[in-house]
Write a structure and sequence with these properties.
The complex is a heterodimer of chains A (309) and B (292). With 309 residues, chain A is mostly beta strands. Chain A has strands at residues 5-9, 11-14, 22-25, 32-37, 41-42, 48-59, 67-72, 81-86, 89-95, 106-112, 115-120, 127-137, 144-147, 153-160, 169-175, 179-182, 187-192, 196-197, 203-215, 225-230, 233-237, 242-247, 258-264, 268-273, 278-288, 295-299, 302-308. Chain A contains no helices and 27 strands. In chain A, a hairpin with a 4-residue loop joins strand 21 (233-237) and strand 22 (242-247). In chain B, the strands form 4 sheets. In chain B, strands 3, 5, 6, 8, 10 and 12 form a 6-stranded mixed beta sheet that branches. In chain B, strands 15, 16, 17, 19 and 20 form a 5-stranded antiparallel beta sheet that branches. Chain B has a 4-stranded antiparallel beta sheet with strand order 2-4-9-7, with no helix packed on it. Chain B is built from 1 helix and 20 strands. Chain B folds into 2 domains: 25-141 and 154-169, Immunoglobulin-like (Sandwich); 176-288, Sandwich (Immunoglobulin-like), CATH 2.60.40. In chain B, a hairpin with a 5-residue loop joins strand 15 and strand 16. Classes of the chains: A mainly beta (309), B mainly beta (292).
Chain lengths: 309, 292
């Protein structure tokens, strides 16, 4: 039985200008191809942690079983981290220490992606090794597809066919750009203001407006939100008599789904959305007299403007 | 027989309750946009920039929408203020085309609204911001029922969506800087006060998120981190070129029960949301006197 010892030295590099590649080394009958790919990942709409796989295939058709692999991984330019870009937004991806073989073609893996040993127990080809990068997004991360094309993880390897690595070795670099998509979803806003009955004999009345924001993508929940209620004063009319109600400056979140509310209802306010659906509330206050005729008073529509700067 | 009577009575009671309930007045968004913020780049060949916003209906009723371009700026407190068109110099509103400007959005359908902006050739570097304001004419989902006696009040509430558009020509860059950073301690509330003035001498707006590390200073000069505080409740501080942005925060100390007498230092770190520039750092020292 022919025994090969393979020394795989896998070094992650930031090679900005290199295209994704399949690296092949041809040394006579013992061809070995190594290629790495990363299937596109999808992050949760409202943020979270995602593991992005990097699958490296070692295609050595002439090799028999009992391969032994020793290797290491190291990012030389940006240790442990690579970056995914979309326009002006950047996500960082942290290389995880684990190395595994999803199809079981590589066994006895010990160590981390910074340094591991392993053994190939089958002669089937290719053999798969898997690394992972962790990407964390928040509900402030803009939607879209982020890729590490500008600075992809790249793996330099060396494979030896003899225990002493003296006769035959294969080396090269395999690049696996990462890709992660944060899905886009529309924001819907639902506003409600229940009709109220004024107190008999006159007095103040409060008209509360509750606007509920639901759905949406992370870009919509950027911390740069600027929202307003308008107008500052509304005229309520029953057709013959007019009443006025004034917008109060305070904006609240009745269920605490929005925190850190800063600003005023009429001039603009921002806040952090903690949970979806998110509720904000504003109030119009007016006065009736004991001479105010009974009836139903309505106004021109009040506007709730949803903006992101 | 008895069961039927009870069921009938319950049904009648339900009908009476429904009839006497004040009608809820609810307005939903009825439409939505595919972008709340856009950046468009002016082509040097044509001196124009263009973009599009997809408007979609989620209603079973048609919605009539007007697309209104609005100029705006942020005041010193960071609040958006709509502007009148400038009387001199480049007026973006005179150089924008929107198609369509007004339209009916049918139930379940989408419509693409395109815009094009012309920038004078002699302007080499530009950042200009405006807002596309999609104003619905009527979005009421439920008509009010005027059943209650006495003086009743009703408000219609209409959600309005906007898209903020940044127009760029050339390669404008932000250059924010800390003009003033003052700090102190409010022992009664166990808060630290922060007074921060930011300026931007660049040609593009800066988008900053601010953290402060509160340190205790030892006699030896070494510092011991106590707590990380978030400026503006972690909301964005946008600083436009040649404008002052003031931030006054009283920040609760959540991890530190009360500051002991001694010397303290705040390390300010302002990070650009887009990672387009290094973080800005500044420090501020304050002392908690012994009587506290």
């Amino acid at each position: 039985m022919r025994e090969f010892r393979i020394l795989a030295l896998i070094v992650g590099l930031g090679l900005g200008s290199m295209a994704p590649s399949l690296v092949m080394a041809d040394h006579g009958e013992n061809n070995v191809n190594v290629s790495c790919t990363s299937p596109p990942a999808t992050a949760p709409v409202d943020g979270g942690t995602v593991l992005v796989d990097v699958n490296c295939l070692i295609d050595a058709p002439n090799a028999s079983s009992n391969y032994r692999i020793t290797g290491s991984a190291d990012n030389l330019m940006t240790p442990n981290t690579t970056f995914l870009n979309k326009n002006l937004s950047v996500l960082s991806a942290t290389r995880q220490p684990n190395v595994n073989s999803p199809d079981g073609s590589v066994t006895s893996i010990s160590g981390t992606s910074n340094g591991f040993t392993a053994q190939l127990t089958t002669s089937s080809s290719p053999k798969t090794l898997r690394f992972q990068y962790q990407v964390t997004t928040t509900n402030h991360t803009p939607a879209g597809t982020y890729t590490s094309l500008l600075n992809p993880p790249a793996y330099r390897y060396q494979i030896c066919t003899t225990p002493s690595c003296s006769q035959q070795s294969f080396s090269g670099i395999a690049i696996a750009p990462l890709s992660i998509t944060i899905p886009s979803a529309p924001v819907t806003v639902n506003c409600a203001s229940s009709p109220i009955n004024a107190a008999p004999g006159g007095g103040t009345f409060d008209l509360d407006i509750v606007c509920t924001v639901s759905g949406g993508n992370p870009a919509s929940f950027s911390p740069s939100g600027q929202n307003t209620f308008s107008p500052a004063t509304v005229t309520l009319s029953n057709g013959s008599t007019n009443l006025t109600a004034t917008l109060q400056s305070a904006v609240t979140s009745p269920d605490g789904s929005v925190s850190g509310l800063v600003g005023t209802a009429s001039e603009g306010f921002t806040g952090n959305i903690n949970t979806i659906p998110a509720k904000v509330q504003a109030r119009y206050t007016g006065t009736t007299l004991n001479t105010t005729p009974a009836g139903t008073y309505t106004s021109a529509p009040v506007l709730f403007t949803w903006s992101t700067i | 027989m008895m069961k039927k009577r009870i069921l009938l009575l319950a049904l009648q009671l339900l009908l009476v309750m429904l009839a006497t309930m004040p009608a809820g007045l609810t307005s939903t968004s009825s439409y939505y946009l595919d972008a709340s913020r856009l950046e468009v780049q002016v082509s040097p060949a044509t001196d124009t920039a263009s973009g599009a916003v997809k408007v979609s209906s989620n209603s079973n009723r048609p919605v009539h929408l007007k697309v209104i371009p609005k100029l705006w700026h942020l005041n010193a407190q960071g609040v958006m203020v709509y502007d009148e068109p400038p009387k001199t110099g480049y007026n973006l509103l005179d150089n924008i085309g929107i198609n369509p400007e007004e339209f009916d959005l049918l139930p379940g359908k989408s419509r693409l609204v395109r815009f094009i902006i012309k920038v004078p050739h002699e302007i080499n570097t530009l950042e200009s911001a405006f807002q596309l304001y999609f104003q619905p004419v009527n979005l009421l989902e439920v008509e009010p029922q005027k059943t209650a006696a006495g003086v009743n009040h009703m408000l219609d509430v209409v959600p309005v969506f906007t898209t903020t558009v940044y127009v760029y020509k050339g390669n404008p860059v932000p250059a924010p800087r800390v003009e003033q950073f003052q700090c102190g301690y409010l022992p009664d509330k166990n808060q630290v006060s922060v007074n921060l003035n930011l300026n931007n001498t660049g040609s593009k707006h800066a988008r900053l998120l601010g953290n402060i590390v509160l340190n205790r200073k030892a006699v030896s000069g070494q510092t011991q981190p106590l707590e990380v505080l978030h400026l503006q409740n972690s909301t964005l501080m946008v600083v436009f070129p040649n404008t002052l942005r003031s931030v006054q925060n009283n920040l609760d100390l959540e991890k530190t029960k009360k500051l002991d007498p001694g010397a303290y230092q705040m390390e300010l770190r302002l990070v650009d949301e887009r990672n387009v520039q290094p973080a800005i750092q500044s420090t501020c020292d304050f002392t908690v006197p012994a009587k506290n």
